[in-house]
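pls design
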């Protein structure tokens, strides 16, 4: 995901408010159980309820997307609109269905990244073990359409490289998209990194089903529950290796994996780089290197 833009905007806001370090609610109402859910389609509200927001991304025009427990929201100056997915109580909302607006269904959408060549969104549908798409934004009155990119629907997950329609993922989590539209996915419970390109899914690093902490090239390398991804460049992908408490780098030309940070982390889940500084969401804090 292109988190660099996100962080730049946050820094710009911080510069204006440099005398304050207060954390405050920006959007939404906390979900507190069955009966307290007011996701309303086709309206921009400050009272939309979030039940489990996991991912955040900015499209090419600066609009902020949020992946929630079973749906996708778009933020407008602190208010939000349900763009796709289930709009009733999340207890009953887990499902998979392509479609427009509330006709579509997700199950724990997590990582989200913008395909900058099309301005469409790539969404990791973690609970369904699928990689999904969301059509480009048109206007605040038009719902967006969810589609299929890769994977086989399954609640238990699996692993298979090959054509996108038959490939399998095992709890995919993070996602990044390069300028050519190639998609990189962290297959969290498969302990490997996958690539979607040209209608096919391949494993570029790690060995499915084998966790470990070993540098090497391609399947010779091992990970443990990799999560967040960040594209440093067209040839370099950073990986938040959650289970190993490390940050790893994949050379996308050779698929060689090296360790960037080997100590001082408790459980990195995501990361980005701004002005040469690496920012990491760690288990109990945010860290900078």
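designed seq:
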């Amino acid at each position: 995901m292109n988190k660099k833009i996100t962080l730049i905007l946050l820094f710009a806001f911080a510069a204006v408010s440099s005398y304050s370090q207060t954390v405050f609610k920006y959007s939404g109402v906390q979900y507190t159980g069955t009966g307290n859910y007011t996701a309303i389609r086709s309206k921009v509200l400050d009272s939309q309820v979030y039940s489990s927001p996991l991912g955040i991304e900015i499209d090419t025009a600066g609009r902020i997307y949020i992946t929630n427990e079973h749906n996708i929201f778009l933020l407008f100056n602190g208010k939000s609109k349900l763009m796709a997915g289930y709009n009733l109580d999340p207890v009953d909302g887990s499902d998979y269905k392509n479609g427009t607006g509330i006709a579509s269904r997700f199950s724990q959408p997590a990582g989200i990244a913008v395909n900058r060549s099309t301005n469409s969104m790539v969404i990791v549908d973690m609970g369904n073990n699928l990689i999904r798409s969301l059509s480009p934004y048109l206007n605040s009155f038009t719902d967006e359409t969810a589609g299929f990119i890769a994977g086989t629907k399954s609640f238990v997950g699996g692993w298979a490289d090959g054509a996108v329609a038959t490939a399998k993922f095992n709890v995919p989590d993070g996602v990044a998209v390069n300028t050519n539209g190639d998609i990189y996915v962290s297959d969290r419970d498969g302990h490997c990194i996958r690539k979607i390109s040209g209608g096919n899914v391949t494993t570029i690093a790690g060995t499915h089903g084998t966790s470990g902490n070993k540098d090497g090239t391609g399947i010779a390398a091992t990970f443990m529950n990799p999560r967040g991804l960040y594209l440093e460049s067209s040839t370099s992908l950073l990986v938040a290796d959650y289970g190993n408490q490390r940050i790893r780098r994949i050379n996308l030309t050779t698929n060689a994996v090296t360790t960037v940070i080997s100590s001082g982390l408790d459980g990195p889940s995501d990361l980005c780089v701004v002005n040469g500084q690496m920012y990491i969401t760690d288990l109990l804090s945010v860290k900078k290197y």
